């Protein structure tokens, strides 16, 4: 069994994101949702062409799947599907701007049922203190609590919307 990965390195001037699979990073910039990564789905034109060039096939069986099996074209650990499914991440570099608010890093269990815009809207309300899910721990300051609360609220919302996949969410507050 394989896994996907999404990593963000946040510097003073740039945000570097490395993605392998269908986890995703979304930046809220000036109130707008800005995708920082692109899912590695087998029907994405460049991924489809790469798989077929290597002699593999993409089968549309309950969604597009590599060799009719895997719904991602890149992952870590699915060696039985080499060379069609690769573990090479795609890396993007984005300049930081004054309006950058936060980044959401999450697995497809979130993104399959919640849009980029809705996720950013929910996180913004959590960071503003307008949505509170659980009481704050004594060990956390207000910003830490609100950031953790935002990730929890997104996870709970994805479960309530019927997500059938694992749900992992990290929120990075860029204003903190």
TrEMBL record:
InterPro entries according to UniProt: PP2C, PPM-type-like_dom_sf, PPM-type_phosphatase-like_dom
Domain of life: Eukaryota
Residue ranges constituting the PPM-type phosphatase domain according to the UniProt record: 1-174
One Pfam family recorded for the sequence: PP2C
GO MF entry, a single one: protein serine/threonine phosphatase activity
Name of the protein described by the UniProt record: PPM-type phosphatase domain-containing protein
Organism of this sequence: Tagetes erecta
């Amino acid at each position: 069994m394989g896994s996907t990965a999404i990593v963000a390195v946040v510097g003073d001037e740039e945000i570097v994101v490395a993605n392998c699979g269908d986890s995703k990073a979304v930046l809220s910039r000036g109130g707008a949702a800005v995708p920082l990564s692109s899912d590695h789905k087998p029907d994405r034109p460049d991924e489809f062409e790469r798989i077929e060039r290597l002699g593999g096939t993409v089968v549309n069986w309950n969604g597009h799947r590599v060799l009719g099996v895997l719904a991602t074209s890149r992952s870590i650990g699915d060696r039985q599907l080499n060379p069609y499914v690769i573990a090479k991440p795609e890396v993007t570099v984005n300049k930081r701007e004054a309006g950058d608010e936060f980044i959401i890093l999450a697995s497809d269990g979130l993104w399959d049922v919640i849009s980029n815009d809705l996720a950013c809207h929910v996180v913004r309300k959590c960071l503003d203190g307008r949505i509170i899910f659980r009481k704050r721990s004594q060990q956390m300051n207000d910003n830490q609590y609100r950031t953790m609360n935002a990730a929890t609220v997104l996870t709970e919302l994805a479960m309530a919307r019927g997500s059938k996949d694992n749900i992992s969410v990290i929120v990075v507050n860029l204003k903190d």
